[in-house]
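Quick one, C-alpha cells below. Sequence please?
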C-alpha cells in the first residue's frame, strides 16, 4: 500500500486509500462476517488500494478476492473515511455500488459472505459507522461522510455527512 503525503501549510498529511463495495441483488445486500483484528462484524467487501492501481481496479480486485464475484457494473456512490488530526492522517474510502455481477460466492480470509435482506440491516451485528453508511449507497445521488477520529479517546468525535442529488 502506498501512502500519499500532502504538504499543506507546512504540515504533512498521510493519506491511505481504501475501497468498499456494496453488492445488491434484489432486496439483499452481500456482507462478509469479519472476525479478525479490531473491526469484527459484518462488513461490505473491500480493502486497500494497491499502488498504482486505480480505485475502480481496486474495487474489482477486492470484490473478486473476497467473494469470488466479478462486477459487471460499478457506480462510485461516495467518499467516506476517517480523519485523525493528531496523527495528521486521513483514511479515504471510495464507496462503490454493484448491482450486476457474475460468479459463485466463495469464502476468503476476510470472512464468510452472506446475503442479508435489506430490511434486516438494523439487526445485523456490525459497527455503527458501517450501519449508518449503508443506506447512503441505496439513495439517489452521491455522498461524502467523514468521521473525525479522537486519537486520545480512541473514538469518533464527530461525523460530517453531505448528500448530493
Amino acid at each position: 500500500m502506498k501512502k500519499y503525503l500532502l504538504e499543506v501549510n507546512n504540515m504533512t498529511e498521510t493519506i491511505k486509500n481504501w475501497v468498499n463495495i456494496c453488492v445488491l441483488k434484489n432486496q439483499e445486500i452481500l456482507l462478509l462476517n469479519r472476525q479478525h483484528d479490531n473491526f469484527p462484524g459484518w462488513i461490505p467487501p473491500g480493502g486497500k488500494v494497491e499502488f498504482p492501481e486505480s480505485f475502480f481496479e481496486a474495487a474489482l480486485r477486492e470484490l473478486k478476492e473476497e467473494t469470488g464475484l466479478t462486477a459487471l457494473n460499478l457506480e462510485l456512490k461516495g467518499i467516506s473515511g476517517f480523519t485523525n488530526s493528531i496523527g495528521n492522517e486521513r483514511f479515504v474510502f471510495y464507496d462503490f455500488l454493484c448491482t450486476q455481477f457474475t460468479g459463485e460466492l466463495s469464502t476468503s480470509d476476510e470472512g464468510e459472505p452472506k446475503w442479508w435482506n435489506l430490511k434486516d440491516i438494523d439487526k445485523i451485528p456490525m459497527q455503527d459507522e458501517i450501519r449508518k453508511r449503508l443506506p447512503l449507497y441505496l439513495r439517489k445521488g452521491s455522498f461524502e461522510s467523514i468521521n473525525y477520529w479522537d486519537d486520545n479517546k480512541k473514538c469518533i468525535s464527530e461525523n460530517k455527512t453531505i448528500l448530493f442529488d
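Helices lie at 55-67, 128-138. The first strand starts at residue 4 and ends at 8.
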